[in-house]
TrEMBL record:
It comes from Vreelandella lutescens. Residues 65-191 form the Tripartite ATP-independent periplasmic transporters DctQ component domain. It is found in: Cell inner membrane. It comes from the Bacteria. The chain crosses the membrane at residues 49-69, 89-107, 128-152, 164-186. Its main location: membrane. This is TRAP transporter small permease protein. The lineage of its organism: Bacteria, Pseudomonadati, Pseudomonadota, Gammaproteobacteria, Oceanospirillales. Keywords: Cell inner membrane, Cell membrane, Membrane, Transmembrane, Transmembrane helix, Transport. The complex comprises the extracytoplasmic solute receptor protein and the two transmembrane proteins. It is a multi-pass membrane protein. Belongs to the TRAP transporter small permease family. Part of the tripartite ATP-independent periplasmic (TRAP) transport system.
Length: 208
């Protein structure tokens, strides 16, 4: 095809489509006041320090887990020998990794959520839903705290190889749900403050 026979709109149709900034889908302006951010000092100082400490602990557990599993893989492959206690240690580390990671992700609002409706609601109505949501979460966490305490008080056994108390493994669940319950109650308080404050201040908070 010669250049003279090219349709007038061919050049515009061949241009790459504009890619929208993905942060539009990741940032929810209605929940900004509920997030805990250690870099911008957003959220209570105690929760920020605990979140940062949990993230360092997650990194340490992950490194220990990789080293432990890799050592057994190398031992089986090269020396035809493996350490029997490594698998037991890996299971315990993985349990702690899951629950501590869940608590840290909850603090930073990184759990998967369907928020298509909340994004389109005004600030006050959005925080009414957030208040109800976190009241339910706090209630469930308190139930799990009670159940976890019963498990800890009745757990007297030890692991088969390393002899680690099984209550130490269950402790990760209890610490996780206590932290999530505390953050949920703080978010309820923040949402209530936004709901009851004057309309002008709500609009100002939404603009920030």
């Amino acid at each position: 095809m010669t250049p003279s026979s090219t349709p007038p709109n061919a050049e515009s149709s061949l241009t790459a489509p504009t890619i929208e900034d993905p942060s539009v889908y990741l940032d929810d302006p209605n929940r900004k006041l509920l997030e805990i951010d250690t870099e911008t000092r957003q959220g209570p100082a105690l929760f920020r320090w605990l979140t940062l400490g949990m993230e360092y602990l997650i990194g340490a557990i992950l490194v220990a887990l990789i080293v432990a599993v890799s050592s057994n893989v190398v031992g089986r492959s090269l020396f035809n020998h493996s350490l029997p206690w490594v698998d037991e240690l890996a299971r315990m580390l993985f349990i702690w990794l899951v629950f501590i990671g869940a608590a840290a992700a909850f603090a930073r609002y990184e759990h998967i959520a369907v928020d298509a409706l909340v994004r389109r609601l005004p600030l006050r109505f959005a925080h009414m839903l957030y208040c109800l949501q976190h009241l339910i979460i706090a209630g469930l966490m308190l139930v799990m705290v009670f159940g976890g305490y019963q498990v800890l008080s009745r757990s007297s056994g030890r692991s088969a190889i390393m002899g680690v108390p099984l209550s130490l493994v269950s402790l990760s669940l209890v610490l996780c749900v206590i932290f999530i319950a505390a953050v949920s109650l703080w978010r309820v308080w923040m949402s209530v403050r936004i709901i009851v404050q004057p309309h002008g201040q709500s609009a100002k908070a939404q603009g920030e």
